[in-house]
Design brief:
binds magnesium ion; mainly alpha; 62% helix; 389 residues; Hypothetical protein af1432; globular
Length: 389
């Protein structure tokens, strides 16, 4: 069965990004000699893995870190473990489709590197702070600035000097930016779709968090098994099968088995749909993918509807549930108050951030500093700032 999917899903070889040294997509802003035994994209993946911003993902919330009212637990997903799960799915997708797995891996590793502390609540609050100054916070664009400027590891240049292909993927893995609104992105082929290696990251991300958030939501007690069975028909189908096959299985294992079923079904559907989409337009080259009428990485209609329904369920019952409200309010309060304190007292910024003020302006500089923080660091910075005020 698996080998059937494997051969059916393989795309024409010309569609993959080759990643050979000297190709346009392996170009770096600062020229470097090829590595004797590693490809350009393998080096990018390693540079991301060794970056300071990557390690900080361990201290950033994905959805929540504690049951409401409880001390933090140590096994809910963090941004780091979520990132590793996305990477595993992206490698499977890319490998099965015959795409460039090293490029897909580098893009998966970097896809959440621009996220501020406190998950989406922190991101929303930071964006709100910046709106007051006519600016916005966008985690994709922030990720690009991390890899092109904020990381300081190399003697010859600022940033990680990643390949053009990976930088383009950072910008375009989940949305399309217009050249008019973002002239600074003009070097990233904004009128074309990105290669499939980049397109698949967004869906790998969706598949990873959909299943993981159901898992963490159930484990935390915020969601109940009955509620998930009721609200997520896709889950219920697999859960029914597990209970039928293993009538004696406990709630935990039957849940895991069902979630694995959901994950596999989404991945398999995506593989089949990408193959079908590529065949439907007769694409045989990367250029065909770039100029296709739409993005070619998508789920089939039925599975897309099931995914969307599960996402609505998660928003209503987990992300925006009453139990989460208190931690969202706390996140917003900490971000807003720290932002205001640093705007009023820029002297509290560390020296390397103060140096950015003349070119970036104070509001952007303060937001950049906050965006780099982990959850525990921002708590401490906030407490210090309120003492100083
Ligand atoms: Mg993600």
């Amino acid at each position: 069965m698996e080998s059937e999917i494997r051969s059916a899903a393989k795309l024409p070889a010309g569609i993959a990004v080759l990643g050979d040294d000297g190709e346009e997509l392996t170009q770096r802003a600062y020229g470097e000699p090829p590595h004797p035994y590693r490809t350009a994209f393998a080096r990018d993946g390693a540079r991301i893995l060794h970056a300071r911003a990557f390690r900080r993902l361990a201290g950033k919330t994905q959805v929540f870190t504690r049951r409401p009212g409880d001390p933090p637990a140590d096994h809910f997903r963090s941004r780091l473990t979520h990132t590793l799960e996305v990477t595993q799915i992206a490698r499977t997708l890319a490998g099965t489709l015959g795409l460039n797995t090293e490029m897909a891996e580098a893009l998966a590793l970097v896809h959440d590197i621009g996220h501020p502390p406190y998950g989406h609540a922190g991101e929303k609050a930071l964006d709100q702070c910046l709106r007051g100054f006519g600016l916005r916070f966008d985690h994709n664009l922030h990720a690009l600035r991390i890899v092109t400027w904020f990381e300081e590891r190399y003697a010859g240049f600022r940033g990680l000097n990643l390949t053009l292909g990976v930088r383009e993927g950072i910008v375009k893995h989940s949305k399309d930016y217009s050249a008019k609104e973002h002239p600074e992105l003009s070097g990233y082929f904004l009128d074309e779709f990105p290669p499939l290696e980049a397109q698949l990251i967004d869906l790998a991300d969706e598949i990873a968090y959909l299943t993981a958030d159901l898992d963490d939501g159930l484990d935390s007690g915020i969601l109940t098994l009955e509620q998930v069975r009721e609200g997520v028909p896709l889950f219920r189908g697999f859960h029914d099968n597990v209970v039928r096959e293993y009538p004696g299985s406990g709630e935990k294992t039957s849940t895991y088995e069902a979630l694995m079923g959901v994950l596999n079904a989404l991945v398999t559907d995506l593989l089949n749909e990408v193959s079908a989409g590529v065949a439907a337009i007769g694409a045989t080259t990367l250029e065909d993918v770039r100029r296709a009428p739409k993005r070619l990485v998508a789920l089939g209609l039925e599975m897309e509807a099931a995914r969307a329904a599960a996402k609505v369920f998660l928003f209503d019952n987990l992300y925006n549930s009453p139990g989460m409200e208190e931690s969202h309010q706390h996140a917003a309060k900490v971000v807003e108050e720290l932002f205001a304190a640093l705007m009023a007292h820029p002297g509290m910024l560390p020296e390397d951030h103060r140096e950015e003020i003349p070119t970036q302006g104070l509001a952007r500089t303060v937001a950049d500093y906050i965006a780099g923080m982990t959850d525990s660091f921002i708590e401490q910075a906030w407490e210090r700032s309120s003492v100083k005020e």
